[in-house]
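Record 1 of the preview.
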Amino acid sequence: MKLPGRFYYGEFLERPNRFLTICQLNGRRVSAYIPNPGPMPDLLFPGVEVLLRHSPGTHRKTDYDLVCSRNHAILLSLDSRVPNWILAETLPTGQLAPFAQYHEIISEPVYKESRLDFLLHANEQPSCLIEAKSSTDARNGIGVFPRVPTKRGQRHLQELMHAVDEGYRAAIVFIVQRTDAHTMRPNDSIDPDFGAILRKAAKCGVEAYAWTTRFIEATHEIVMDRSIPVDLSPPILDA
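->
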């Protein structure tokens, strides 16, 4: 998935609110929209190098998007929209083995009280509902989700369980936007309810998958990197 636009390296200064950052670019302060409302103090702190995309528009308050930050010499995508974009691009190719048999991909289907991310159809196969989640957090090689408690995420899992009861396949897909994660886990120390519902959902037949992504700095592309296991063993709580 190639990101369009012109890109510039800058320096993160501050984050006045969830969607606005102040960065230094070529010696001047600029405002940049951040397409991810979650707190990321490990990735966004004063002085860290960031990648800005020039994206002016008449209906925008800023001329830039903050799309990546530098972490241990590697640029990481922070855009929470990427999982949907990259899955929409990759699912039709058949490259994702669990979903390779599906030939019709519908984005943003409404199911029960939720708008999920994808509905897949195939001949003589149960239709499959997919909910995608973005993870930018990894600790000692373990990717985790969420960064903050998510009632919305819990509701999506409940809907996926209902879908299984009605004869659908249902899956939650974690897209870990970094290459240093080797396993994916629910972030029980932040949202134990999400972890508990995820484990219950898995026992009820909801499938859980995770893939890492890699940002190619030379071409400004985000590509699927590899599949990693989702570990649903009992919670690991912070001491």
